[in-house]
Design brief:
Helices cover 50% and strands 16% of the residues. It has 379 residues and is α+β, with helices and mostly antiparallel strands. It has 3 domains: 114 residues, Orthogonal Bundle (Butyryl-Coa Dehydrogenase, subunit A, domain 1); 104 residues, Butyryl-CoA Dehydrogenase, subunit A, domain 2, CATH 2.40.110; 146 residues, Butyryl-CoA Dehydrogenase, subunit A, domain 3. The strands form 3 sheets. The protein has a 4-stranded mixed beta sheet, with helices on one face. A 4-stranded antiparallel beta sheet has the order 2-3-7-6, with no helix packed on it. A hairpin with a 2-residue loop joins strand 2 and strand 3. The model has no long low-confidence stretch (mean pLDDT 96).
Amino acid sequence: MKLILNEEEQFLRDTAKNFAEERSPITHFRSLRDNNDPILWDKDLWSEMSKLGWPGIMIPEKYGGSNFGISGICVVLQECAKTLTPSPLFATGVLGAFSIKTYGTDEQKEKYLPSIASGDLTVSLAIDESSHHNPYETELSAKKNNNNYLLSGKKVFVIDGASSDLLIVLARTSGNKGDSTGLTLFLIDSNQAGIDKVKLDMADSRNYANINFENVDVPSDNILGDPEAGGEAIDNILDIGRIAISAEMLGNSEAAFETTLDYLKQRKQFGVLIGSFQALQHRAAEMFCEIELTKSSVMAAMRAADEGSNELQRLSSLAKTVAGETLHLVSNEAIQMHGGIGVTDEYDVGFFLKRARVAEQIFGSSKFHTERYANLSGF
């Protein structure tokens, strides 16, 4: 397992870096927030990203993608995270593309994957039903009704749920809350009758929604994967998602760290640069070491995913744990080292703290994944 980028991945990273810096600097994110944009991402910018082929990175070539794998999408997410670029890339290009590519029928792949690759279709994954992440706690019911299913229940904190065209919904077709069995995934048009989307106002100013389902009529042809096998499928989907969000969190950490270093080199106190204070140098050195450790953890998880390693689950949880702890540390230290101005809105560094607090909870906190890693390791 090589923990370095190959030539193609380096080229993709450089392209993403240039795009993020030139087309979506932090001022772009700030303008979307200040203008109360209804979807909190720019459709024109998404169109440009789609023309670069980013939504199709994980999609096979026969469906219009490049089949570059999780490593390819991760380097893009990492670079876009440095400028806090808001887009449906994570929910659509990672969760949606991987779910349908892996578990969809030939008809479902033909129907959805080309539209995802072109950027014409956005997707959301609706799994959790409380603030505590645990897909097995699903209670949203899918009751058989002739050849169809009637779905009733709720999903919370759905990423890009306020704007997505297609929902991938985890529902319970049998068993009880907490069971890993009896779960089934469904593909549902987000504008279908009986669906009520409630947009959430989150600290990081991104697109989230709580979604209520009331007797939503879904054909059995819209089942994703095998009926009753949704528990196993969602575990695999989430592991891919955790690796991708860890790459984004790594990019957040890198940018917050660089912003802080620049400030240490400019800010003077008692007539000298504060970067000359040994205590602050030690704290900066700790952040640097943690970021380097995170790079290795995320890279190992990326490679495990692309190589089909048996260590995927463990390395996915490891990456999410380390990325979460590092981003928590770096975002806190960035605010502390900026002093009082760090919490003012006019300084960009505060955005990284807000993004950190939300991203840390996506698909399980560091505490959740520390326990999961221990269980997978036999402790």
